[in-house]
Amino acid sequence: MYAVGVDIGGMSMKCGLVNEKGEVVDRVIVKTTLGDPYEKTIGELCDGIKELLKKNYLTPNDINGVGIGVPGAVNIKKGTVDSSANLKWYNVPLVELVTQGVGRQARITNDANAAVLGEARFGFKWKYPNVVMLTLGTGVGGGLIVDGRLYEGNEGKGAELGHITLVLDGRQCGCGRRGCAEQYASATALMRLTREAMEDHKESLMWQLCDNDINNVNGAIPFAAEKQGDPAAKQVVDEYIKYLGETILNFNNIFRPNAFILSGGVAKQGENLVNKLKDYCAKQNWGYENTPEPELLIAQLGYDSGIIGAASLYL
Questions:
Q1: pLDDT of residue 110
Q2: 21-31 residue pLDDT tens
Q3: CA of 47: how far to CAs of 30, 130, 257, in Å?
Q4: Per-residue confidence at 34, pLDDT binned at 50, 70, 90?
Q5: Which of 35, 71, 226, 242 has the smallest number of Cβ neighbours within 10 A?
Q6: Could you tell me where the DSSP H helices lie in the chain?
């Protein structure tokens, strides 16, 4: 049993041939050129999928279907990408075009939804029936597993966890509102905090770690400097943990999941990040006294979670 999983991003479209064990047997990567007509981009995606099948001596009839994870607001009933700011796609009939172009039925979901499905099913083997996943990258994506099922909401537009209001009248967000969690808990936000601290503390070790070029700042630098006792870096890390911790506490009170799964660039800090968050959340009673403490986990499938989760729509 095979399915094709596609993870669409602003720079590339990753296509994987996935078996019933959740293993990526083979893959191709199709470059995304922003500004191209969506018909051209989707045509290239279909060509990539057919190339993947041909490489493995398969025809479209040998797979169960093509699952696609897309950033932005999708309509799972109509099979359309209604709005994707990253791709500049609006009202795009993606399912129809891929189904016609490949010759096998396609389905879509939000990319973060695909990722949480992949992690819950194949990363953690359904150990946790209720899961909240936060992807900490350019923004903050979110995915939910509720009672062992992927929760997508009305038309598939639910679980936009990065757009809860964390700071009333706070920073302007790309969604049009202010104070969204992704303006404070994303990798982008962490890098902004780091640059601001470096400008205020020219003596900080963070300058040395980015070769004295503030343009080289990434999300790992404040954690690395904090480990070496840099006071300015500790201030950055503490502030970031506060924002991310409060985001987790909010969702813990709403969903009371068995586990939170963290993915994305910031999650590469592993136990260093997890232990700091656990300490912060424990001091806040995990949101409410005498309630169960969730597991706090790092995603296991890495960059394949989106591919595997998208394929899971057909496995």
A1: 93
A2: 999 999 999 99
A3: 9, 37, 40
A4: confident
A5: 35
A6: 38-55, 94-102, 111-118, 182-185, 187-200, 205-209, 221-227, 231-255, 271-283, 305-311
Whose tokens are 């009305």? That residue is 154
The tally of CA atoms less than 13 A away on the side-chain side of residue 227 is: 9
CA 248 to chain CA centroid, nearest Å: 15
Tell me the three state secondary structure of residue 295.
strand
Quote the pLDDT of residue 9: 87
Tracing tokens 């791709």 back to the chain, one arrives at: 87
Residue 230: pLDDT band (50, 70, 90) is very high
Quote the CA–CA distance of 116 and 138 in Å, as a whole number: 18
* Whole-angstrom distance, CA of residue 28 vs CA of residue 56: 12
Strand partners, 109: 69
First to last CA, the chain: 7
Classify the phi-psi angles of 287: left when phi > 0, otherwise alpha if psi is within -120 to 50, otherwise beta: left
> What is the CB-side half-sphere exposure of residue 30 using CA atoms within 13 A?
20
pLDDT tens for residues 99-146?
999 999 999 999 999 999 999 999 999 999 999 999 998 889 899 999
Per the CB < 8 A criterion, the answer to whether 312 and 5 are in contact is yes
Name the residue among 193, 292, 209, 195 with its Cα closest to residue 244: 193
Q: Which residues are paired to 8 by β-bridges?
A: 13
CA 255 to the chain's CA centroid: 19
The residue among 174, 171, 183, 5 whose CA lies nearest residue 83 is 174
pTM of the model: 0.90
pLDDT of residue 86 exceeding 80, the answer is: no
CA-based nearest residue to 142, from 160, 124, 157: 160
Class of residue 147 by CB neighbours under 10 A (exposed 0-12, middle 13-18, buried 19+):
exposed
Residues composing the chain: 315
